[in-house]
Specification:
heterodimer; A: alpha/beta; Rossmann fold; B: Phosphoribosyl-aminoimidazole Synthetase, Chain A, domain 2; seven-stranded mixed β-sheet; five-stranded mixed β-sheet; 9 helices; globular; iron (chain A); iron ion binding (chain A); carbon monoxide binding (chain A); Hyd_form_HypD (chain A)
Chain lengths: ~375, ~350
């Protein structure tokens, strides 16, 4: 497959892997956080840990938009979805995210009209086709998906669609990373920066990581070779005592970001004063809501949502895992009370969640497996 | 891996082996997707109520002793939407699917029954087209549709047409196909490209606005089974058709039932570029995507190469590959050596990747 298979070449992987080993100090332990859930998924799906020296520990960061959504926001979405006049649309990942009393899949089985879409534009089409129904789109995601929600809203406004609204849960990447860096129980040597978010915001927003906190950051692509190369670039920086923001994903990510997308976002959204993140608590200016010019399309204003804060289940340690303090298997309920079939916490739901990735791909008795065995 | 991590994984494995309890208060779509939720429904709710020796193995076809022989019995319902898709249609699928469930159990199909649930308002032309498709598929497989039933339901109570087929056959006395016959070292053969049917349906539904030419692989597996039987004889240990839930699900069942581990080589998996591309865009693993004309066979190592060549010589087996092997360890698990040089496990599917595919 063009533009994919080249980045999955086993021979190149072995070469990069050997190069990483050669710049790794055998006496030292390195903790590197991949911020983005997409990277977590790639790491497990391709077995990348097997290609890294034992001294390098990968810590899974908060970059999975489904995982960081607090339970209260799920409940609010469900309360809108249960209204008889509403057709509720969302991405497939959202369907099984647990609210305090159930998930969207169960609410659908009870009779709510919930439809899975692949793009907010699909929700817009449903709104056009059902003028007598209220069509609500459950918007989630970082700056990666916010521009497509913005464009959809711009189009809805231009068309004067009155039966369409957005329940906005878009979040921004920089504030949680800053919160993590401020967290006293976390010691990291560097970051693999998110790739898709950076196609929109560029690399400049990460400069605070090196300048204010002295941590190197390499913005990385999503194919396994991208990740290996990014780890190599980080290790080289650490080895040379350098501390910079570097762009491994330059084939996609422009240093300054995507100005057209940023302009659409600036028109449609504004920053919320604060937003709750699962496991990280309230973080100032870390999420988006619709700007006054688009208030007519704001589902939070159109439907009265409870606005109740719901505490995570007591046993759930998603917060510690999100911050990289605990590994997934170190959580008290991992694999027992919390499994992909019956997730307690959101990290077990999304395929990009650290716990689900570890549960689905990572469990194996390493000693018993011949690595890389051939036919 | 630390001792603590190993302990957590061991506990998790023990939990996996316990008989599941069905606790959901309502049936949702994941219960029909062929993954873990479906297993829970079957083993936690259906099996306890219906418990009997013929049902106990929970196989796609039951083998029932009758005199000196074994009768094979299977049934399947077809609710695919759209009714017609590139490469096939519901009528053809309903015949092939049931013939294949008999074939992979080493049984010669004797006769089929067909029940049609028709929605009020369905155009006669569509019904007639599907019945003709059933007739053609039955003729191709050499098996008569010997009895049937017809019901009509009110408009809005069915998606045009549902088809339920039941098949009866006689098990081949020379074959001993069972997960208990499988041994470490045995090779796993796959008769062709994976995920074609699921991908074709997904694209045909038009929700994705993907434009790609993918045909469903629906076909009778009888010729492929014959070829394997001729070349491998009693070295043929086990066969399945990886329909709903895909190869990942079938191999997990094999690992669980045999007590051995299964290892796959990612670079050996035959997957069309276009199917891989569609799966990549949708974030779906082709290992869980449905097939309707492929079989997985476990063959003793000495007979594997001859079996592979036998598959290559039959129509529908041209892309066959040896995709993996059975190992002592890791017991009851499926792992894959990735093309990138790492290793990962392949668990049973959770949730619903593709709606209404068969």
């Amino acid at each position: 497959m063009k533009y994919v298979s080249e980045f999955r070449d086993a021979e190149l992987a072995r070469a990069v892997s050997a190069e990483i080993a050669s710049v790794t100090d055998p006496e030292r332990h390195y903790k590197v956080m991949e911020v983005c859930g997409g990277h977590t998924h790639t790491i497990y799906r391709h077995g990348i840990k097997d290609l890294l020296p034992d001294q390098i520990e990968l810590v899974h960061g908060p970059g999975c938009p489904v995982c960081v959504l607090p339970m209260g926001r799920v409940d609010e979405g469900i309360s809108i979805a249960e209204r008889p006049e509403v057709i509720f649309t969302c991405f497939g990942d959202m369907m099984r995210v647990p609210g305090s009393k159930g998930n969207l899949l169960e609410v659908k089985a009870e009779g709510a009209d919930i439809r899975m879409v692949y793009s907010p534009l699909d929700a817009l089409r449903i709104a056009r086709e059902n003028p007598d129904r209220e069509v609500v789109f459950y918007a989630i995601g970082f700056e990666t998906t916010a521009p497509s929600t913005a464009l959809t809203l711009q189009r809805a406004k231009k068309e004067g669609l009155e039966n369409f609204s957005v329940f906005c849960n878009h979040v921004t990447i920089v504030p949680p990373v800053r919160a993590l860096l401020d967290s006293p129980d976390l010691r990291l040597d560097g970051f693999v920066g998110p790739g898709h978010v950076s196609t929109v915001i560029g690399c400049r927003p990460y400069e605070f990581m090196s300048e204010d906190y002295g941590k190197p950051c390499v913005v990385a692509g999503f194919e396994p070779l991208d990740l290996l190369q990014s780890v190599l670039m980080l290790m080289r920086q650490i080895g040379a005592g350098r501390c910079e923001v570097e762009n491994q994903y330059s084939r996609i990510v422009p240093w300054e970001g995507n100005l057209a997308a940023l302009k659409s976002m600036a028109e449609v959204f504004e920053l919320r004063p604060y937003f709750e993140w699962r496991g990280l608590g309230f973080i100032a200016q870390s999420a988006l809501k619709l700007s006054p010019a688009y208030a007519d399309f704001d589902a939070e204003l159109r439907f009265s949502v409870p606005g109740v804060r719901v505490a995570d289940p007591k046993a759930c340690q998603c917060g510690e895992v999100l911050k990289g303090v605990l590994k997934p298997h170190e959580c008290k309920v991992f694999g027992t009370a919390c499994t992909p079939e019956r997730p307690l916490g959101a990290l077990m739901v999304s395929s990009e969640g650290a716990c689900a990735a570890y549960y689905n791909f990572g469990r194996k008795s390493f000693e018993k497996v011949e690595i890389g065995s051939k036919v | 891996m630390t001792n603590k991590e190993q302990r957590v994984l061991d506990t998790l494995e023990q939990n996996r082996r316990r008989p599941p309890k069905f606790t959901a208060s309502r049936i949702d779509m994941s219960h029909g997707a062929g993954g873990k939720a479906t297993h829970k429904l079957i083993e936690g709710l259906l099996l306890p109520a219906l418990e009997n020796p013929a049902l106990a193995p929970l196989s796609d076809a039951a083998l029932i002793p009758f005199g000196d022989a074994h009768i094979a019995l299977t049934t399947d319902s077809y609710v695919v939407r759209p009714l017609r898709f590139p490469g096939g249609s519901i009528g053809e699928l309903a015949v092939n699917g049931t013939v294949n469930d008999l074939a992979v159990f080493g049984a010669r199909p004797l006769a089929l029954s067909a029940a049609l649930i028709v929605e009020e308002g369905l155009e006669t032309e569509i019904l007639s087209r599907e019945v003709e498709a059933m007739a053609a598929a039955a003729a191709r497989a050499g098996v008569p549709i010997a009895t049937g039933d017809t019901k009509v339901v009110e408009r809005g109570k069915g998606d045009g047409l549902y088809v339920i087929t039941t098949g009866v056959g006689v098990a081949d006395p020379e074959l001993n196909l069972s997960s208990a016959s499988v041994c470490p070292g045995d090779k796993i053969l796959c008769s062709g490209t994976l995920g074609d049917h699921g991908a074709a349906i997904l694209i045909a539904r038009g929700d994705l606005e993907l434009e790609a030419e993918v045909l469903s692989d629906t076909r009778p597996l009888t010729p492929l089974v014959q070829a394997l039987k001729r070349s491998a004889g009693s070295d043929l240990r086990f066969m399945r058709d990886p329909t709903r839930g895909g190869v990942g699900t079938v191999l997990n069942e094999l690992a669980r039932d045999s007590g051995y581990g299964v290892a796959l080589w990612e670079e050996k998996l035959p997957i069309r570029d276009v199917v891989n591309g569609a799966c990549e865009i949708l974030g779906i693993d082709p290992l869980y995507v449905a097939n309707e004309g492929k079989l997985l066979a476990v063959v003793a190592p000495g007979a594997a190469d001859a079996a592979l060549e036998a598959l290559w010589s039959v129509e529908g087996g041209e892309d066959a590959q040896i995709i993996g092997e059975v190992r002592e360890e890791p017991a009851r698990m499926v792992i894959m050596h990735t093309g990138f040089g790492g290793t990962r496990m392949i668990d049973m599917l959770v949730g619903d990747p593709l709606p209404r595919i068969c």
